[in-house]
Design brief:
By secondary structure, the protein is α/β, with parallel strands linked by helices. The chain has helices at 2-18, 28-31, 45-48, 50-65, 67-76, 80-87, 92-102, 117-121, 152-157, 185-197, 215-222, 255-258, 270-286; strands spanning 22-26, 106-111, 126-128, 135-138, 144-146, 172-174, 200-204, 224-230, 236-242, 245-250, 264-267. Helix 4 runs antiparallel to helix 5, helix 7 runs parallel beside helix 13 (270-286) and helix 10 (185-197) runs parallel beside helix 11 (215-222). The longest helix has 17 residues, at 2-18. The structure holds zinc ion (ZN). Zinc ion binds at residues 138, 140-141, 143, 165, 167-168, 170.
Length: 287
């Protein structure tokens, strides 16, 4: 088993070195190793508190119906999760992806996580597909703001909630994408573009079953390159072959594995496997 894993690490390192546009997709699995609970795992936030999940499903509609009430409720609940996320530190998995970017290999990280840990680890090109818990966003023009650009407590005291966008006057909500809320168009567009342009996709700690994020690996899988081939009878024909190498790093097989969206799965912790791949990339580059 160990040998097999080592072979796959080497294969991934070679594939990365041979790629000209590699991107990574990440999900909850990469952050649980930083102590951030997921939502639906055995000790997930919603597994333990189903009412919180029901509230989450209603949240966007509640915001549209009554933005003032929505903000008042937000500011009344203890900011436990936000506080925990502020203290969380990136783990070796996040750092390895930042390192691959520094090496000029990784072009984008597209993450479903709202915890900001990729940026904390030093990644510069991060697309936060489901937004960030540390930012606010105008629902009209899409501008994003740091949370502390608004004195939310003061607005609450002055009875001036909800906050409005200083650029266009639109309503401001938290950047985290709620159920039923469309993915912000800039992020959705750039992510799809990246999935279409890449020739290597590293999928880390996500089973990618939640749409529209789940369409990114499937889009990449459909991409074909044309290659000329000589048949046994000497005819030259053009064949269409998959144009993207898709590598999955997950604790267990996922629908991406079963549907053969990924070319291969390296089973285990992203915090151990990604640094192993980076070491191997370094070694190969030194040869
Ligand atoms: Zn605006």
């Amino acid at each position: 088993m160990e040998n097999l894993e080592e072979d796959l690490l080497k294969r991934a390192a070679k594939d990365l070195i041979n790629s000209s546009c590699a991107i990574a997709l990440t999900g909850a699995g990469i952050s649980t190793e930083s102590g951030i609970p997921d939502f639906r795992g055995p000790s997930g936030i919603w597994t333990k508190d189903p009412e919180a999940e029901r509230r989450a499903y209603r949240s966007y509609q509640t915001f549209l119906d009554d933005p003032k009430g929505w903000w008042q409720e937000r500011l009344a609940t203890p900011i436990g999760l936000l506080g925990a996320l502020e203290k969380a530190a990136p783990n070796p998995g996040h750092q390895a992806l930042a390192e691959l970017e520094k090496m000029g290999i990784l072009r984008w990280v597209i993450t479903q996580n709202v915890d900001g840990l990729h940026e904390k680890a030093g990644s510069k090109n991060v697309l936060e597909y489901h937004g960030s818990i540390f930012k606010l966003r105008c629902v009209s023009c899409g501008s994003r703001f740091d949370r502390d650009q608004f004195d939310l407590e003061e607005l609450k005291r002055q009875n001036e909630l909800p906050p409005y966008c200083p650029k266009c006057g639109g309503l401001i909500k938290t950047d985290g994408v709620a159920f039923g809320e469309p993915i912000p168009s800039d992020v959705a567009h750039r992510s799809l573009e990246a999935a279409w342009e890449c020739d290597l996709m590293l999928i880390c700690g996500t089973s990618a079953v939640v749409y529209p994020f789940a369409s990114l690996p499937r889009t990449a899988r459909e991409k074909r390159a044309e290659r000329e081939k000589e048949t046994e009878t000497g005819l030259h024909v053009v064949e269409r072959i998959p144009a993207v190498v898709i590598i999955e790093i997950n604790a267990e097989p996922t629908p991406l594995t079963y549907e053969e969206i990924s070319d291969y799965l390296i089973e285990g912790k992203t915090g151990e496997i990604l640094p192993g791949i980076v070491d191997e990339v370094r070694r190969l580059r030194e040869i």
